[in-house]
Amino acid sequence: MLTVLVGLLGALVYGAADFLGGLSALRTSALRVTGVAAVAGLVALFAALPLVESEWSAPALLFGGISGVSGAIAISLLYACLAIGPMSILSPITAVVSAVVPMTWGLLGGERLGPIGYLALVVALVAVVLVGFTPGEHAARPSARGLLMAVGSGAMIGVFLVLIDQTPDDSGLVPLIANRTVNAGIMLVLLAALALLARRRRRAALPIPGGDAVRPLEGGSAQGSGSGTARSLARSGWLRLAIACGVVDAAANTLLLIGIRIGDLTVMSVLTAMYPAGTILLAAVVLHERIARLQVVGLVLALASAGMLALA
Asked: What whole-number distance in Å separates Cα of residue 154 and Cα of residue 142?
């Protein structure tokens, strides 16, 4: 029962973090948001380290560090696809994939499911089809690019869950600190490279004597089809949103780690996959996103499949 409560709470916190990240990515690049969030989350984890008994070890640092690579890819794709939108569709797709990957790992490792577990996998696939099907002229329509990003993000989140599960039980917050350190390092290096590239482009665009100035192409922004409300919120302070996203995401990761320690990876992975509940709630209230009826059915099935997998 405690594992279920921790898993559901973590899912809601993850959903809030994703919503903040998606809003921030409307105003600037998803890569920049991920970098700021990673640094903010790392600071928050170091602040909480004295409160948690943590044993530093090579396995904790190794698996935690490798998970930082998969996490960087996952979150970059996630925030980019949420910025493209609609959040209420792409987020559940990512969630279903992120649950299936650890489940597959468990099956390959010798775990067996009961009939309800296999039925849940079928329900999850049906849910993916329904949430991507958008009948009607006014229904929200995810792009192929957004769908691919959502699937890729879900796969990398699943890899992150598997790697974190490999860390020692007495490692406390050490795996998450290693994760965020690698994550932040990757993001900062990429941001520095992009800044250098942008400087070179600006130099190449200097006025030529006797000719017109060459205007560089503006890019690097993850602004998609987000609503005017979302862009207004993002313009009010993308940096604050990104920092808040990092802190909230670090709290969600901590809840995930606690759940894995006291429970099972399979159960926690599918409970965590319910995080679209938080994202969808915020997207509906703040962004006023509309969802078609079949999509509602798909969302319900996605959440139901996660619950069925937990029971399995």
From this structure: 16
Contact by Cβ (8 Å): 38, 187: yes
Ramachandran category for residue 75: left, alpha or beta (phi over 0 → left; psi -120 to 50 → alpha): alpha
Each residue of 206-217: pLDDT tens digit?
555 554 444 433
pTM score, whole prediction: 0.75
Q: Helices 144-165 and 238-262 meet at what angle, rounded to 10?
A: 40
Q: Are 47 and 102 in contact (CB under 8 A)?
A: no
Which letter does DSSP use for residue 208 in this model?
A: P
Go through the chain and tell me how many residues it has: 312
Helix (H, G, I), strand (E, B) or coil at 110: coil
**Cα 189 to the center of its chain, rounded Å:** 20
Per-residue pLDDT tens over the stretch 171-188: 999 999 999 999 888 888
Query: Taking a C-beta distance cutoff of 8 angstroms, is the pair 284, 88 a contact?
Result: yes
The CA dihedral of 219, 224, 226, 230, to the nearest 10 degrees, is -20
Helix-strand-coil percent breakdown of the chain, rounded to 5? Answer: 75, 0, 25
